[in-house]
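The records we work with from here on pair a chain with its fold. Taken together, the tokens spell out the fold as the letters spell out the chain. To see the layout at work, look at the sequence and tokens printed below.
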Amino acid sequence: MKGLAAEIHVSPAGNDSNPGTAARPLATLAAAQQMARPFAGHRPVTVWLHTGVYYLPEPLRFTAADSGTKKWPVVYAAAQGETPVISGGRRLKLEWTPLRNGIFQAPTPAGLVMDQLFVNGERQSMARYPNYDPNAAIYNGTAADAISPERVAHWSDPTGGYIHAMHELLWGDMHWRILGKNADGSLMYEGGWQNNRPSGMHKEFRFVENLREELDAPGEWFHDAKSNTLLFIPPAGLDLKTATIEVVGLRNLVEFTGTEGQPVKFVTLRGITFQHAARTFMENREPMLRTDWTIYRGGAVLFNGATDCAIADCDFDQLGGNSIFVNDYNRRLTIRSCLIREGGANGIAFVGDPKAVRNGIGWQAQNNFLTIDQTPGPLTDNFPADCVVEDCLITRTGRFEKQTAPVEIDMAQQITVRHCSIYDVPRAGINIGDGCWGGHVIEFCDVFDTVKETGDHGSFNSWGRDRYWNLGGVPAGELPKLALLDVVQPNTLRNNRWRCDHGWDIDLDDGSSHYVIYNNLLLNGGLKLREGFQRIATNNVIVNNSLHLHVWYENSGDVFAHNIVMTEYRPIYMTIPKWGAKIDYNLFTGSEADRLKYAAQGCDAHSLAGDALFVNAAAGDFRVRPESPALKLGFVNFPIDQFGVQSPRLKALARTTAIPVVTMVTGGQPAPGAQTIWLGATIRGLIGEEYSVVGVHAGSQGILLVDVPATATAFADGLRTGDFITRWNGREVRGVNDFLKVIVNSAGQKAKLTLLRNQQPMVQEIAF
């Protein structure tokens, strides 16, 4: 012990009979925890973790007995300059022998259950069909014939295999465990419960794994539990004799297990790497109220009844399920300066108790005005609140579960997400699943490369299907008040940079209410506001896009003012005569016709059209110059250099988003080569030698489909990368702006597109 403070050292090379000094450290975290407990709450306690891998036989569980105080906290931290790893797996010493066709085999311990295989620290692929393709957009490879009768007949015993498939509408995904074969040779399987709006398997986007007969590619493995044999095809150059082989067992590595009355308090984890947590896609089955989500309440670090605890400067590396899960009652937790990468499910999830929700019902159920509880707010305190996620880099989560997010919030209150860099994920970057109970603040985040494997979503997504949603028997004028019974505090999105190339930059979907949205830079997909109340969007810059108004209520109280937009608004099913409380004082960088388009709906009487005079749009500086007309409309410049992570360690690792070429300048004309998104496809006019490549003369008008990913609606409509559209229902297409205006006027109609594909003319019909 060192003075008043208690300092305990632990090292995988130590011994639990040692006194826990730097010279004679303990060997296990369990022993260090037992040594620390008598001092907890009576003096500062630091458990120093030295370099090495701490393989856990069971989760390390903190209880109220491990609690510190504000004056005397308990800290488990990496020793200065050292790199400790907490692992939920085990290392295997194997004797490899060649089998055939590049396959090596090794006997494994009897009774070994392994969920994942790591070789030299990198996760390998279960034997799968189709084979893993790092360049494939969805699941790293899918095939329509993944469970065809012909392929199933090829498997001698598929028991224990898995089927993975996207939702038919690309609203996430689902998973099934194969139980064997029926007498007729068809598969027996269970599962498909991983989506709160379930569907059948997507006909194309599916794959299978953990099947012996599919072991045919470098990096693939299969464990035969009956014969206790591991089969593996090593990648070229890998020396199996010296390779580190690790397998995964535990789902949760560290658990904070307190209660509201006796929480775990003032315990911090710092500078630790967490690895080797099991996949949990088959356990993900609890529906989340009326959201599209289901959830598994676990993670590499699980908080359940903790207050004033923290995780700082930690790495969460290639974990199979949720990286951090904050479950039910928790208060004032801080997650700061962490790297979360290659996770199987959610990055950080805050999820409360459905029993804390007044009139919380499932997706298909309907409340009635005469029977609902009209008391505002929650019924109990059993939910996360007053927590902060700050300066975190979260990337490539959702490797196994697609209906997930780097930051997921359900049934929680006052969660702040600040200065985070979030990118390269299958669905939303940040998702708020309901209106329970608001007060969330999302600020200074950089969120991009999202919705890469799914559809109908945004970089930020929310739902608000609360007790007012689909409510029967509501007297006239009551709905705006009822909409705020659950979301009792406004959610705030401010000073963020958003870019979604496969959806909306900000998507407030189905009933999302009580939002304040200002000082956001939206770089591609625009702002969508679907049915809801009290959404105040001011002082935002929406590049190459605009406001998407979807099915607004009368008397919504919505405000859209003092923004810079670059196209006319994009309404869908807007049947009410006047849109919101105020849509005005906006600058359109397109044409005057864009500004006047919806004047009859009470929009933009004082708005202007003109050049925004950005400081340096090409470099991402979308502040405006002093002579900009936007300033006359009440627009105020906001910082554009504070997005994303701030710590030097994470800034050195983080990517930043690509800055788009500004499509719209004064007069509504596109800049040369400017790109925009249509039906999930990237489109623009021809430039340079592309006229020759497409097979048209220089100066020809039309639209080039630069990129049509497999997830795009355009792809489903039969369009492909490289197509050049020349006519829409026989009408000549004269450029991007003209094309987009034709589309707006054709909503709900079928369209025949005349196009060139590989220099050959063809007609493609789409239902727009």
